[in-house]
Amino acid sequence: MAKSAKKITPRIILLVSLAVLLAVLAVIFFRGGEKEKIRHETEASPAKGTAAAPAEKGVRTVRLYFLSEDDDLLHAEHREIAAGKDIASEIETTVGELLKGSSGSLVSPFPADTKLRQVFVTKDGTAYVDFGKGLGDNASYGASSEMAAVYALVNTVAFNFKSVRRVSILVEGAERETLGGHIDLSRPLVPQYSLVAK
Questions:
Q1: Rounded to whole angstroms, how far apart are CA atoms 104 and 90?
Q2: Out of 14, 60, 193, 194, which residue is the most buried by the measure of CB atoms under 10 Å away?
Q3: What are the pLDDT digits (tens) for 10-68?
Q4: pLDDT tens for residues 139-165?
Q5: Which residues contact 159 (CB under 8 A, 6 or more apart)?
Q6: Which CA distances in Å does 60 have to 32, 66, 89, 154?
């Protein structure tokens, strides 16, 4: 028994040593390659960022959705806004432009006294857009006018801000079940681009 144990022990030691050596070589090989790759990407990134930054800074063009007197669809109108310090401030500016109404012949789906209170965006991509009571309490909506008001807002925000996946409409800081009894506002809404004129 003791003799066979002595014969096996050097063989086991040799196998363990080879396994450890292979593991060390594998770590050196793979980690060395990663370092090179990371260094390469880091060097390339600032050059791209500095070249693109001046063109995007200051002003951006947004697409706003309004109604037309010719149909019940939403029609796009482009407008330039000042770039904000963050996404919430840019959404506030964009919605402010939407509430000003069309600069052409399109029709705003919002009551004239609608005021924007604030906007905040969560990490999961939900934008909460909070209006004053003029949006809900002082307006009467039919089915098509309520749909136009809701989706002019939702489509405008989601189209222009790709990180926003859903929009929740608040009135005076609180969720509402609906504006006029036709569209459920108790959950955040996703855009409906089928309502946009081609």
A1: 22
A2: 60
A3: 777 767 676 766 665 555 545 544 433 333 333 333 333 333 333 456 899 999 999 99
A4: 677 888 899 999 999 999 999 999 999
A5: 63, 65, 191, 193
A6: 43, 19, 13, 19
Amino acid at 195: L
Say how far apart CA 166 and CA 188 lie, in whole Å. 6
Of 107, 88, 93, the closest CA to residue 152 belongs to 107
**pLDDT > 90 in the chain, percent:** 58
Phi, psi for 149 (deg, rounded to 5): -65, -45
The one-letter amino acid code at 20 reads: V
The structure tokens 């459920």 sit at 184
**Listing from the earlier edge strand, what are the strands of the sheet with 174-175?**
116-121, 126-131, 166-171, 174-175
> Residues near 108 by Cβ (< 8 Å), separated by ≥ 6?
66, 67, 98, 99, 101, 102, 152
Domain ranges of the chain: 1-56, 59-195
Beta bridge partners of 81: 60
Using a 10 angstrom Cβ sphere, with 0-12 exposed, 13-18 middle and 19 or more buried, the burial of residue 62 is buried
- Side-chain-side CA neighbours of 55 within 13 Å: the count stands at 5
pLDDT of residue 84: 87
The pTM score is 0.70
